[in-house]
Structure formats: C-alpha cells, structure tokens
Amino acid sequence: MKSAPIQDHTSPLNAEQAQQLTALIETLTPMQVTWISGYLSGINASTVAGEVAAPAAPAAQSSVSETLTILYGSQTGNAEDIAEQLKARADTAGLNAVVIDMLDYKPKDLKKEQNLIVCVSTHGEGDPPDNAEELHEFLFGKKAPKLDGLKFSVLAFGDTSYEHFCQTGKDFDAQLEKLGGRRMADRVDLDVDFDDAAEAWIEHVVSTFADDIGGDTAHPTVTAMPGAQAATPESNYSRKNPFGAEVVGNVVLNGRGSDKEVHHIELDTEDSGLVWEPGDSLGIIPENSPDAVAELIAALGVSGKDTVTGIDGEVSLEHALTHQYEITTLTRPLIEKYATQAQSEALDALLAEDQREALAEYMDGRFVVDLVEDYPIAGLTGADFVRLLRKLPPRLYSIASSHAANPDELHLTVAAVRYETHGRARHGVASIQLADRSEESKLPVYIDSNKNFKLPGDDVPIIMIGPGTGVAPFRAFMEEREERGADGDNWLFFGAQHFLTDFYYQTDWLRWRKDGLLTRMDVAFSRDQAEKIYVQDKIRAAGAQVYAWIERGATIYVCGDANAMAHDVHEALLALIGEHGGLDAEAAAAHLKQMQKDKRYQRDVY
Ligand code: NAP
C-alpha cells in the first residue's frame, strides 16, 4: 500500500521508527492496514482503560443525536453475534447505535439512515441468508432509493472454500456506494476463522464513525469479546473458551446393510453450566486425524517434530497440523499462496482467471495433501507451510436433545463422512473424530445459539420437515414439548433411504405417536420402491391438511440439506399455498415470505 512517508519532525516517532513504519506500510494490503489499525486502537484502549479490563463502565454520555444503525443478515448467527459486539463497542464509544435483524427492517427506511453498518453472510451459490433476501432484492430493484446522505460500511462473512466468497457482502457494499452512499471504512471479507479480523474491524469502524459523528472516543471502555473474558464455569464457555465434554454414548443408528453411518452421540454436560434451547447447535473445535496429519507430513518430507510458529506461539509441526490448522479443504486463497512458492507453470496456469472451472474441478474431492504431492516445493519447511494454512474452524451440529428434559446430557445426530476420491480415502474431520476417536479425550465444545430456529408458544401447532440427520433438532423440539406439557399439535415429515435401516429414533417417534404428543407423522423412504419418494412428495400429497394447519397458525420448520431438499420443499409449500389458498404464484410467494417474517417459516439448512 502506498503512503506518504512519515516525517519524524511532524510525528512523535524518531527517524528510525518513522522509516520502519513507512517501509512496513508499503508492504501492507488494505485488509492488513485495517487489522493493524484495529489492533493498535485495541492496545490504546487497554492503556486508557488501564491494562486490566475494568468492569464495564456506563456508556459514555453521547453528545450525538445521529443514530448508527447496524443491520445484520445471518444464517448461522455469526453475523448476528458480531453485530451485537459491534453495538456494545459502539455504545462504549458513546455512539447511539441500534442493531436490527434485516428481516425486521423496513427497506424503505434506508433512505432515512445517515450512518449504517451492514454485517452479512453469504450462502450457497453466493446467495443472501434468508433474513437478508428482501433487503438485498430491494437494493437492486427499481424502488431502490438514492442514498446520497448515507455513510456506510460493510462487514462480509463467508468461507473461502466456496467460489462466491462473501458475495452478498460485496453486493451490499457495491450497491450502497452506487446508490450514493459514502464508504467510511473498507469492507472486510471474513473467512471461517473470523474472530481476530472481526475484532480489529470493529475497533476500526467504531473509531471511524465516532470521529465522524462525534462519539466519546476519549474514554472508550474495552468491550470484552466473547471468549476473551475470564471463564466462569457457569455460563461463559464459548468458541474461544470451550468446555471439555466427555462422550458417554456413541451408537450407530443405522441397521446392517445401510449405505449410511449415522451416530447418536451423547455428551456429559453435568457441572458445565451449559444451557441450550431446542434449535441451538453445538460447536465443536475438532482436531485432524493422526493419519491425515502423518500423511501430510510425509508428503512434505519434513519432521513432525520441527518447531513452527503456530497460532499461539511455538509448537511442533505435528501439534499445529493436528489442532490448529485446516489440512483438508482446499481453497483458492491457499492455492494462490502456495503457488507463489511453488514456481510451477502448471499451477500458475490453473489459477488463471479463465481457468476457474478447471480449478474448481481440481479442488473437487482433493485435500491439501494432494496439492503438496501434485506440486511439490523443494526445500519448503514446516514453518513456511503452516503460514499458508487457515485456522481449523469449528463445526456445528444441531442439538438433538432438550436441556429442560435432560440437563446433564447433550445429544447429537452425526453422519460419519467417509468416501474415496482420486484413489485416496477421505474423512470428515469432526464427524470421524466423533464416530471413531471421541472416547480418547474430552471434546472442546460450546453452544451456538440460533434465534432463528425456535419453538413458538406451547399452544401453537408446528410442522417439522427434517429428512436424514435434519431430524435432529425435532427430537429436541419434541422432548421439550413433552417436558413442558405443551399442547400444540406436532406434525413430522421424515425421509430416509430405507425404512428398515435408516428410520432414526424410530422408537421415540412411535412412542410420541402413541402418547398423542406427535399428532401426525409422514415418512418418505426414498429407496423402498421403484420410484423415489421424498418428503416434498408427502407434503404435496397432504397439501390440503398442511394448508389447514397453516391457516390454524402453524409454524413450519425445515432442517437439513440446503441445496436440493430445502429448495424442493419450498417449492412444494408455495404450490400448496397457491392451490389451497386460491392464490397466484406471486401472492403465494408473498404469503410464504410473510410467514417467514412472522417467524412462522424457519429454516436451519446448510
Ligand atoms: P440423507 O440420509 O442423505 O438423505 C435423507 C433423505 O433425503 C434420503 O431419503 C434422500 O434420498 C432424500 N433426498 C435426497 N435428495 C432430496 C431432495 N432433493 N429433497 C428431499 N429429499 C431428498 O441425508 P443426511 O446424510 O442425513 O444429510 C442431510 C443433509 O442435511 C446433509 O447435507 C447435512 O449436512 C444437512 N444437515 C443440516 C443440518 C442443519 O442445517 N442444521 C442438520 C443436519 C443435517 P436419496 O438418497 O434416496 O436420494
């Protein structure tokens, strides 16, 4: 990054420091500048607040009346969590900040905004999350207003292993500018290991807005980020400070001869203080398998005992590859960084802009070890290699049990991922750790709450659609409703390949049917007959009754595969609302959209 040289006579730096800083700045990307500026303001804030994070002081009195609106669009809750942290930080800087779910936001209000921060994630093929869809559509539609008076910044959440990385954030950022807005801080695109970069961006953006609209930055209070605060066993376990849970049960739910291997896992949560609600997920900080680590070290031709600089300081290469870095998924940024050292014409060619499809094909079904074997780098050390990797991200699993019914145990439904590609056996990181090695040590876990997948009032009827392992949260729903004596009707649509081998939790469902808690259950065993039958076929067949339940105020839940199933189920719901409600396609879509806004159509799909 180019910058004017720092003059030692106009800065508090001495000549040598000024020179060093100028030289460093020239090597930095805009993202690194953002990070460093946030990092420095964090240090500055700690100094002002006095090294030890003092108890949160009351928010500084603000002399400003301008509101800073923070909008979030979030599927799994990350963008929402960061939006909340941003608000807390803005409060302590004396800003008048409000945080709003995009689903609850009237797009027309945009033109009244003066200061706006957007925190938004991206899903599937570059799509916005459910709660951001409407605002996204509005911004790109004919009714999009001029936003000349708007000052804005965007924080984008994504995953570099997807082609359309952070696309929704990029869309918001570009469109807000196009409509006349003024960008206050450059957009930052966050990968799955987003904590540090998000923290830095928050510091940077808050001080930028505070400088502009006049918060009280002279007396900022350091807002502790989740996990940064000291742990108290009752409630403060988090992604950065996970609870070590013991696996006390591990049973395969499939019968012999099934193509699937789904495990029912039970974790001991006694004395953990962990509390969750039905619909929440469990975050697991996984570790890579010893076999995968050994294979990679062999491919690198180095020793696992070599010392490398890991995430928290010096560790052995073997430790870093086991606990700290992702060594399976290939991402474009990783290959790009690797290519700068590989000096391979073939690899450079694969990274050319017009070779995106060829690169996607190469990445499909290959892991980091394949890259190392296919394009070896002579003399690459373990220390050099780990610098190319991204942090091992946590994995989320829908919780399959109710805390109210069973506070000392937490259940998961985990499909073991094992397959073979390009002549090599491949294993899912967390699923195989859970399936095969979970009894070896305690599992670092935390609760990842999901406000967008929650039971309604006890008397409200619910329709649950969850094929395969997507049925997990509905077991928690039913346990909870049983425990609470909730009298709302319950209807389950479940699908799997075979009745005999894949009917997960069959005894639970049958018992609840018998007790009357489960009002109705429709099952679609796709491969028990010549023609495939899926849950959406069962939904279509029961269209009139589903519509009657909707009319009675039912909430509909969908959990499981986002790509095909959730889309097909959505179409089936639109069709039955149209048919039985006497609505054309547009009106049926508006009806379902309204249900979504009213939280009567909730999806937890990925
Ligand atoms: P699965 O056993 O592979 O599939 C369950 C049933 O769904 C099978 O009968 C399958 O039929 C059928 N199916 C296939 N395509 C479908 C479609 N377009 N519409 C409806 N049904 C379809 O499922 P699984 O392995 O448990 O995985 C379920 C998916 O849900 C995974 O992608 C998992 O990642 C995801 N999941 C998400 C969450 C969450 O978001 N919280 C939780 C759990 C699971 P055939 O195989 O015969 O085609």
Features:
606 residues, alpha/beta, Rossmann fold, Elongation Factor Tu (Ef-tu), domain 3, NADPH-cytochrome p450 Reductase, Chain A, domain 3, 4 domains, six-stranded parallel sheet, six-stranded antiparallel sheet, 37% helix, binds NADP nicotinamide-adenine-dinucleotide phosphate
Q: How is the secondary structure organized here?
A:
Blueprint: H1 15-26, H2 30-49, E1 67-73, H3 78-92, E2 96-101, E3 115-121, H4 133-139, E4 151-157, H5 167-178, E5 182-183, E6 188-190, H6 195-213, E7 243-252, E8 262-268, E9 281-284, H7 290-300, E10 307-310, E11 313-316, H8 317-324, H9 332-342, H10 345-350, H11 356-363, H12 368-374, H13 382-386, E12 395-398, E13 409-415, E14 418-421, E15 424-427, H14 429-436, E16 443-448, E17 462-465, H15 472-484, E18 490-496, H16 499-502, H17 506-515, E19 520-525, H18 535-541, H19 543-551, E20 555-560, H20 565-581, H21 585-597, E21 601-605
Parallel strand pairs: 1-2, 1-3, 3-4, 4-5, 4-6, 17-18, 17-20, 18-19, 20-21
Antiparallel strand pairs: 7-8, 7-16, 8-13, 9-12, 9-16, 10-11, 14-15
The chain binds NADP nicotinamide-adenine-dinucleotide phosphate.
